[in-house]
Amino acid sequence: MNDWISDRNGTLYAEDVPLTAIAQQFGTPAYVYSRAAIRSAFAEFSQACAGRRVLVCYALKANSNLAVIDLLAREGAGFDIVSGGELQRVLAAGASPSRVVFSGVGKSESEMQMALEHGVRCFNVESETELHRLSRVAQSMGKLAPVSIRVNPDVDAGTHPYISTGLRENKFGISHEHAVSVYREAATLPGLKIVGIDCHIGSQITEIAPFVAALDKLAELVAELASHGIRLAHLDLGGGLGIDYDGEQPPSRKAMLDALFARIDADPTLRELEVMFEFGRSIVGNAGLLLTRVEYLKPTPAKNFAIVDAAMNDLMRPALYEAFHRIVPVAPRAGQPQSYDVVGPVCESGDWLGRDRLLAIEEGDLLAILSAGAYGMAMSSNYNTRPRPPEIMVDGDAMHLIRAREPVESLYDLETRLPG
Ligand code: LLP
């Protein structure tokens, strides 16, 4: 899972860099990513698509550091964005907007304008009223907006309720039963060009079946649309493939794509379409860790706490989803392990990173919080006026600082005291 992390003579290395050297040079907490791990995850997807017309997009929301975007652009990725800000990041990283799909339920007019200006590949439209707005905006600019309708296939992806998106009761997409009438309406609107169909059923999915079930639902629609004379150029199957955080056994990237391509190949209409994906977590999740130092060990009558210098503001997933991240000492000790709740310095009981972890540690020790490459830094905040950690990308024995630690003053730079 994390084969870029290895134990060499009792100390953990990220690729060929000792984590102790990163802590020494950049301090803690710090996010550490592996260039090789990101590349190889992406390469597994592209190899599974060899010889096919496929655009594997990277869902920027998982980790939007410019170096990550740049690296994936060089590997041939497209990008899935959900805001004008993410489009600006793609541009700032030097990647091409013609490989960008624009998803999201709440695109503003100015975001639409910006995306049309730069010529994104497709808008994944999520409601009828969005369709009308996009038609108006595109028409006023004398442009044709390429659109896909995001269909909500009502498939249970079996994930955490906060990250499941393809159920009827979710806010996402247009229901399967309304999709055809919405497409027919789209076909009558000026300023729009129908190019595809899209779905995304959720995240951290560890089975193949829900993906195939969603594809089946889309296949029905593609056939029905064709019977109404609406022909599509692409099929976007979203992202959502899960990773191993705690022993989960998601299908391999290849097994997942093979299953989908087998289904596509068996259908003469689907076979004609270019296929797109929007993977986030499965590209970067296991390519990152959060490096932190134990500040205090605090035994209490109820529990032992290991208070570390990373907190919920740096990695929100445990507090928000009760998510599990493995926590391992950087230089394992021989002593008797004890059970600890690993918590941060933030003033909230919800500020925990791991519960009941067996660790042999002392104050001052470094810990690595694993599988933190996706939705880690991207969801961080400055709560408690904590500067966000630096991000370091290792590449062999080189370490690149790809985002500096925030200076505290930058956190209130935009604020002013009252006059007088
Ligand atoms: N496409 C769309 C339209 C999405 O909404 C998402 C994720 C993705 C693609 C990428 O999904 P992935 O391949 O990463 O599963 N913060 C949560 C995850 C939220 C996912 C939201 N949408 C977490 O930390 O688990």
How much strand content do the residues show? Answer: 25-35%
Q: Provide the CATH top-level class of the largest domain.
A: Alpha Beta
What is the number of domains?
2
Arithmetic mean of pLDDT: 96
Distance between the termini: 59 Å
Sketch the major β-sheet: 9 strands, mixed
Integer-rounded radius of gyration: 23 Å
CATH superfamily of the largest domain: Alanine racemase
Number of strands: 21
Poorly predicted regions are none
Instruction: Report the helical percentage.
Output: 25-40%
User: What class do helices, strands and sheet pairing give?
Assistant: alpha/beta
Bound molecules: ligand LLP
Shape-level CATH architecture of the largest domain: Alpha-Beta Barrel
The number of distinct helices, counting runs of at least 4 residues, comes to 12
**CATH-derived topology of the largest domain:** TIM Barrel
Shape call: globular
